[in-house]
Amino acid sequence: MKTSKKMKSASLILTLILIMVTMVACGSKTQETSTTSSSKETKKHTFAASYFTLNNPHFIDWSKGLKSEIVDKHGDKLIEVDAQLDINKQISDVEDFIQQKVDAIFIAPVDSKGIKTALLSAKKANIRVIIMDVPPQDTDLVTAMVTTDNFMAGKVLGDAMVKNTGGKANVAIIDWSVVQAVVDRTDGFTAAVKASPGIKVVARQDGKASTESALPIMENFLQSNPEINAVFTINDPSAVGALAAIEAAKRTDIKIYSIDGSQDAIKLVKDNKIAGTSAQFPVKMGQVAGDLVYKILNKENVEKWVKVESLFIDQSNYQQYLK
């Protein structure tokens, strides 16, 4: 009998030990899972952005939109670099981002074709690229794009010119044809004026989307084509350069039509210095791009090309957009 009791006691103790060991093991596993989950939740990301110029307020607003999502909302890091309109510098900057092993790269390409080298390097490094504002030629090398509907921006500008001129104007275009977004804008303009043969393009030249490049181009236009009475500039800094040349020549009969919708340009609309500007919404686009990168990292399905609508700001509506 004593032997049987001893055996029962030993069996009971062994059972208790097994239960305790199991409980400890389960506790450790739960703690480990919790720690892993916590680690995932607190993982910080580093992103990088390359703008083709930060002299343009348009990209300052893009930066504000990106920061509001990445830095303010998520507490992550955003490295920002100005390519200064130099495609070789931009490619070098992207290579540097890759060396830093950033989680994703935002790029506003200086050159839609020339950016291919940088896109190939990012793809080889398995780093996702989100294009800002300017679509590249090789769209298969990027993860996503966020742009204005550039064809629409050019079309609403052309529609306004047809309406304001009665379908008759001698037009100069200050272009930048190496950039796909600009090609889309001029295509939209061409489509809008197609049914108005009285609107004739009498002068056209590439600038570099800057005030400094547009001013001498406009000076030359005024000397070679004095019949010009309307100007289509592909962005607001170009419009400012064209306006400086027109005012210096004391010409008051030339109307400027631009694209960007910057505050500087809206003030020029208010003062009757330019006819109008097709609005883009760069802060909103930056927020959209910032939100998009987290969906991509979370492997959610996203639209590859997000296009934000444009509208024309002129004397009829500038008060709604002037801050």
Helix content: 40-55%
Largest sheet: 6 strands, parallel
Placed side by side, the strands forming the largest sheet appear as 2-1-3-4-5-11
Low-confidence stretches: 21-40
| Count of distinct strands | 12
| β-sheet strand percentage | 15-25%
Average pLDDT rating: 90
Structural class category: alpha/beta
Gross morphology: elongated
Radius of gyration, in angstroms, nearest whole number? 29 Å
The number of helical elements comes to: 10
Secondary-structure element pattern, one letter each: HEHEHEHEEHEHEHEHEHEHEE
- State the end-to-end distance: 97 Å
Structure notes:
This protein has 323 residues and is of the alpha/beta class. It has ten helices and twelve strands. The protein has helices spanning 2-42, 57-73, 87-99, 116-124, 150-165, 180-193, 211-224, 236-248, 263-270, 282-297; strands spanning 46-51, 77-82, 104-107, 128-132, 144-148, 169-175, 199-206, 230-233, 255-260, 276-279, 305-308, 311-313. The strands form two sheets. It has a six-stranded parallel β-sheet, sandwiched between helices. Helix 4 links the parallel strand 3 (104-107) and strand 4 (128-132). Helix 3 (87-99) runs parallel beside helix 4, helix 5 runs parallel beside helix 6 (180-193) and helix 7 crosses helix 8 (236-248). It is elongated and about 60 Å long.
Q: What topology emerges from the helices and strands here?
A:
Blueprint: H1 2-42, E1 46-51, H2 57-73, E2 77-82, H3 87-99, E3 104-107, H4 116-124, E4 128-132, E5 144-148, H5 150-165, E6 169-175, H6 180-193, E7 199-206, H7 211-224, E8 230-233, H8 236-248, E9 255-260, H9 263-270, E10 276-279, H10 282-297, E11 305-308, E12 311-313
Parallel strand pairs: 1-2, 1-3, 3-4, 4-5, 5-11, 6-7, 6-8, 8-9, 9-10
Antiparallel strand pairs: 10-12
